[in-house]
């Protein structure tokens, strides 16, 4: 098989396998599962015994002293069942992790894109990941993901962050080894629509994208650029040379290093400018 044919097959396979997805993780109870299972079994036993005595055991109905026993059994079983449900569930909100970033479901979905994450660290006292950055409205946001309630979500946040934004992960290697491992078949996979780029601002120039073909998206952190202003390297560290117009390609290594530093400064300045404009707009709306 020729190299050209192999390249075509590889290209087709890459296009076919690229899907925009995220995983949804529901919180787990902090109570020992054995205790929850035992309480559930006891409640089922009491409810079953109470109902059997109430409907089928004639001796309970005929004896005035035993007549109230079925009611007590049913009541006790119902109370223990309520306690089982209470200790067997968690108040933590579901977490979503995937291509668009990290999201928390609290009534509405609040999301932090990968490019908007400033730091991911681990707080030993709370046994939780602490994610700091900005949400989709450019508002400052810090939230925690506890390991006990969300071990699978914690594992996938760390895995995805190391793949997409390794510079933002501030966790020691020794601690990383102690955190839960990310397994392939955990969480509920959710297929997503392609990223809507129209209306978003270029990360370098701050220009609003009004025509979809003019946009270029970093496949690693989903930062959006105007096609004529794509840097050679995104701030997440991913190479964007393949997204740049041919007219901007062909620099030597020394020029590339200088341009990379300049691109980082331009992107950083654009982020600060966008944040300032958003805050000014919010203050104007409030006044």
Walk me through this protein's architecture.
By secondary structure, the protein is α+β, with helices and mostly antiparallel strands. The protein has three domains: 33-87; 92-191, PH-domain like (Roll), CATH 2.30.29; 212-286, no CATH class. 40% of the residues lie in helices and 18% in strands. It contains seven helices and eleven strands. It has helices spanning 3-17, 33-55, 58-62, 69-87, 151-164, 173-178, 253-286, and strands spanning 21-25, 95-98, 101-106, 108-112, 117-123, 128-134, 140-146, 169-170, 188-191, 215-217, 224-226. A five-stranded antiparallel beta sheet has the order 4-3-2-1-9, with helices on one face. Strand 6 and strand 7 form a beta hairpin. Helix 2 runs antiparallel to helix 4.
At a glance:
The chain has 287 residues and is of the alpha+beta class. The protein folds into 3 domains: 33-87; 92-191, Roll (PH-domain like), CATH 2.30.29; 212-286, no CATH class. The chain has 7 helices and 11 strands.
What is the topology?
Blueprint: H1 3-17, E1 21-25, H2 33-55, H3 58-62, H4 69-87, E2 95-98, E3 101-106, E4 108-112, E5 117-123, E6 128-134, E7 140-146, H5 151-164, E8 169-170, H6 173-178, E9 188-191, E10 215-217, E11 224-226, H7 253-286
Parallel strand pairs: 5-8
Antiparallel strand pairs: 1-2, 1-9, 2-3, 3-4, 5-6, 6-7, 10-11
Helix pairs in contact: 2-4
